[in-house]
Amino acid sequence: MSDPVSTTLPETEQADKEFLDDVIAGLHRQPKQLAPKYFYDEQGSRYFDQICQLEEYYPYRTELELLPRVAKELNDYFHQQTSDGIHVIEFGAGSLHKIKPLLEHVEQIDEFTAIDISGAHLQSACAELKNYFPELTIHGVEADFTRPFPLKAEGRVHLGFFPGSTIGNLAPAEAVEFLANARQTLGEGSYMLLGVDTKKDEQLLHQAYNDSAGVTAKFNKNVLVRINRELGADFDLDGFRHEAWYNDAKGRVEMHLRSVREQRVTLGTQVFDFAKDETIHTENSYKYHPHEFEDLAAKAGWHAEKWWLADNQMFSVTLLRS
Ligand code: AVI
C-alpha cells in the first residue's frame, strides 16, 4: 500500500497579510499593477479551467497533445540514465491534468508532490489523481511555488515539472530566479521539465487572450472581486474593462483592467484614484523561441538536454538537467 494523500496546513494569516500588503503597494505604483498569482482563488482557478477548454486558448490543448510523445521518449531516456525511482515535483499544480501522461508512460515515477497556491482546489485534484493511480505516493502542498521549498529524500531522482507555460507569467529575471530556486530545491543531479509557449502570429495570441465567450475577461476581473471580498475594498466591477494585447518589443501578452471613467476606490484607510483610461497591469505572459528559453535556463545553471516542439510549432516542452 502506498501512503495516503498527505497535506500541509496553510499559513492563512500570513498569506492574508501578504495579499493586503501586495495589493496596497501595487495600487500605489505608477503604473498600477497586481501580481497574477492573486487570480487563483477557488473561483479564479475554475475560470482558468474554463479558459483551458476554449477553442481560442491553444496552449492547454497543444501541450496536452504533445505530452504523451514527450513522456514516451522520457521513459526511454530515464531507463538509460538510472535505475532509481523518480519523484516528480509539480510547481503550481492546479488541476493535475498534465501529470497524467507522465504517470502513464514514465515507468520509474513512484512519488508525486503537487505544490499550489490554491489549497482547496489542490486537495480535490490530489484525491482524484489517487483514484487513477492508487499505487502512487502523493503529497499536496499549499505554498507559493516561486519560493525555495524543503524536499526530503536522498537516493532518488528528482524531476521538477512546470507545465502550461506558467514560467511565462514571470518576468525574465524572475524566471531565472525561480529556475535557480527550483534547482536548489531539486538538488544535485536533478531534472526539470517545462512547458513553454512559443512566439507566433499576433492575431492568434490576441484571440487566445480575448476569447469570444468573455471567460478571460471574467478571470481578469475576478481579482477585483477577490480584493473586494477578502480585503473589503469597494471596486465597482462595471468601472473596469478587460484588455489584452501582444507587446512585440517585450515578447509578451499583457493583460490589463482599464478604468472606464475617473473614479476613486477605497480599501480600509487607503484611497486610490483612477484617471479615465488608466489601467491596472494584471499579467504578463512571455513567449519564447526554444533557443531563447535555453539561454534563459542557462543563466540559472541548467543545461537544456532535449526539447520538443508541437507539429504546428505552437508550443514547446524542454527538459533541463542540473
Ligand atoms: C497560467 N498562465 C500560463 C496563463 C497564460 O496563458 O499566461 C494564464 C492566462 N491568462 C489569461 N489566459 C490564461
UniProtKB/TrEMBL annotation:
<dbReference type="Pfam" id="PF10017">
    <property type="entry name" value="Methyltransf_33"/>
</dbReference>
<dbReference type="InterPro" id="IPR035094">
    <property type="entry name" value="EgtD"/>
</dbReference>
<protein>
    <recommendedName>
        <fullName>Histidine-specific methyltransferase SAM-dependent domain-containing protein</fullName>
    </recommendedName>
</protein>
<dbReference type="InterPro" id="IPR051128">
    <property type="entry name" value="EgtD_Methyltrsf_superfamily"/>
</dbReference>
<keyword id="KW-0808">Transferase</keyword>
<dbReference type="InterPro" id="IPR029063">
    <property type="entry name" value="SAM-dependent_MTases_sf"/>
</dbReference>
<keyword id="KW-0489">Methyltransferase</keyword>
<dbReference type="GO" id="GO:0032259">
    <property type="term" value="P:methylation"/>
</dbReference>
<dbReference type="GO" id="GO:0008168">
    <property type="term" value="F:methyltransferase activity"/>
</dbReference>
<dbReference type="InterPro" id="IPR017804">
    <property type="entry name" value="MeTrfase_EgtD-like"/>
</dbReference>
<dbReference type="InterPro" id="IPR019257">
    <property type="entry name" value="MeTrfase_dom"/>
</dbReference>
<feature type="domain" description="Histidine-specific methyltransferase SAM-dependent">
    <location>
        <begin position="21"/>
        <end position="321"/>
    </location>
</feature>
